[in-house]
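lol ok so funny story. i was supposed to be doing the assay writeup but got distracted and ended up predicting the structure for this chain instead. priorities right. anyway since i did it might as well share w the group, maybe its usefull for someone
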Amino acid sequence: MSTRTFRITVRGVFDGLTDDQRAALLADAAAHDVLRAAFTPEGSLTYDIAARPAFVFRFSDTGEEEEDILEATERAEAAAEAWLTGRGYGFKNLRSSAEDLSQAPLSKRQRRAARAGDA
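and the output, tada:
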């Protein structure tokens, strides 16, 4: 059995931030810029609090079965909630989406490489 790789995106909105919390997020904004976004096991947070209160966590996880994506999504949501509540940040509208990369269509470059490998 092969290992499947999952990409989980957890989105939400900061809610009820104090002035100090907003200032702390603004001060750390460069470290959470979308250009630094990556799918990682521990999660990667991006936001632009100056533009809007939305945030995105990106997680990667693995599993053996197709159904493991559900547990991976639950772990990602729990990790995002723990990060936010651990810092005292209020949030709302938490939602997630997940993708099993073994089911993702191949890009043109990947198809070309697969054909070259078969030849």
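DSSP finds three helices and four strands in the chain. Residues 68-86 form the longest helix (19 residues).
back to the writeup now i swear
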